[in-house]
Design a protein that fits this description.
Blueprint (H helix, E strand, L loop, with lengths): L14 H7 L9 E8 L5 E3 L7 E4 H13 L4 E7 L8 H4 L4 H12 L4 E6 L12 E3 L2 E3 L1 H17 L3 E4 L6 H11 L8 E6 L6 H6 L20 H12 L4 E5 L5 H11 L3 E5 L1 H12 L5 H14 L4 E4 L2 H8 L1
Parallel strand pairs: 1-3, 1-4, 1-12, 4-5, 5-8, 9-10, 10-11, 11-12
Antiparallel strand pairs: 2-3, 6-7
Bound molecules: ligand PBG.
């Protein structure tokens, strides 16, 4: 290939030509909307660091899910804020728990909308860690029993997919076994397979009221500096029966996303997390960037890097922009 025989600009000359050769297409069908649910009625509490997002009571969450469905989104993922937190995260696996109730109400009204359950304990424990705590340690194996119970409770409530995000070793296998044993062999697991201990989760912790009361999550979530370790983490989850994989956060980890997609060839998601969303919102509010352009560019690039679908707080706005 040499200039002048090859002139890449020839194919950029018009919108039609550019559309013809475009390699990545983003559409609403690729996007999953996270929703935060708490008790109450008619409640919609704004989350200040995530403009346009709320903690919803169940009835309001049903309305938000309806908006997702009518905007062409295939799925929502639910996070619960329970009334009571305790050391054993009881609210996570209570059959009348907050997300279980929300799932039933949403399924009732919008049976076609896929419901994904985030499976983690930080919103449900009084210490805010993602597992059973002893002293200053987060215990792995006792947490697996809770994960198994929670997966079954979520499947029973009507969730279509369970998504473990606690980064405990063996959690996918423990849940798979429990689901199979309880008659949910057909319920897929979306593993937050490579989840990093990231500063980009800041706004989420306000939204889900889940910051750890001591220490941090570095003993279970991954070191942002590590790439090889991500592939080992993912390999374990695949071996344990993960049906779909996730890399989280998204934009700073596109190298990991691409490698996971190429190596494991499973449906792969990326979580465009709260801090990534908040940065675009904040800069746009200051007039420093064009929000629509930057948000769609970001989501397109996450898809280009290998994501089959994207969990993003921009899901509804992006669906509107793309319609
Ligand atoms: C639960 C969980 C977190 C997020 C998703 N599931 C928070 C955390 O690990 O601290 C973060 C999502 C976001 O920032 O949007 N463990």
């Amino acid at each position: 290939m040499s200039f002048t025989a090859t002139r890449p600009r020839r194919l950029r000359a018009s919108p039609a030509l550019r559309a013809l050769v475009r390699e990545t297409a983003l559409d609403a069908g690729d996007l999953v909307l996270p929703l935060f649910v708490r008790s109450g009625k008619g409640e919609k509490r704004p989350i200040s660091s995530m403009p346009g997002h709320f903690q919803y009571s169940v009835d309001e969450a049903v309305k938000a899910a309806g908006e997702a469905a009518s905007s062409g989104l295939p799925a929502v993922i639910l996070f619960g804020i329970p009334d009571k937190k305790d050391a054993k995260a009881s609210g996570a696996y209570a059959d009348d728990g907050i997300v279980q109730g929300a799932a039933k109400a949403i399924k009732d009204k919008y049976p076609e909308l896929l419901l994904i359950a985030d499976l983690c304990f930080c919103e449900y424990t009084d210490h805010g860690h993602c597992g059973i705590v002893k002293g200053d340690k987060i215990l792995n194996d006792p947490t697996l029993e809770l994960a198994a119970k929670t997966a079954v409770s979520q499947a029973r409530a009507g969730f279509d997919v369970v998504a473990p995000s606690g980064m405990m070793d063996g959690q996918v296998g423990a849940m798979r076994k429990a689901l199979d044993g309880a008659g949910f062999a057909e319920t897929p697991v979306l593993a937050y397979a490579a989840k990093y201990a990231s500063g980009f989760y800041g706004p989420f912790r306000e939204a889900a009221e889940s910051p750890p009361s001591f220490g941090d999550r570095a003993s279970y979530q991954m070191d942002p500096a590590n790439f090889n370790e991500a592939l080992r983490e993912v390999a374990l989850d695949v071996e344990e029966g993960a049906d779909m994989l996730m890399v989280k956060p998204a934009l700073p980890y596109l190298d990991v996303l691409r490698a996971v997609k190429e190596r494991f060839l499973l449906p792969t998601a990326a979580y465009h997390v709260s801090g990534e969303f908040a940065m675009i919102k904040a800069a746009a509010k200051n007039g420093w960037i064009d929000e629509k352009r930057v948000a769609l560019e970001t989501l397109t690039c996450i898809k280009r890097a290998g994501a089959d679908f994207i969990l993003t707080y921009y899901a509804l706005e992006a669906a509107r922009w793309l319609a």
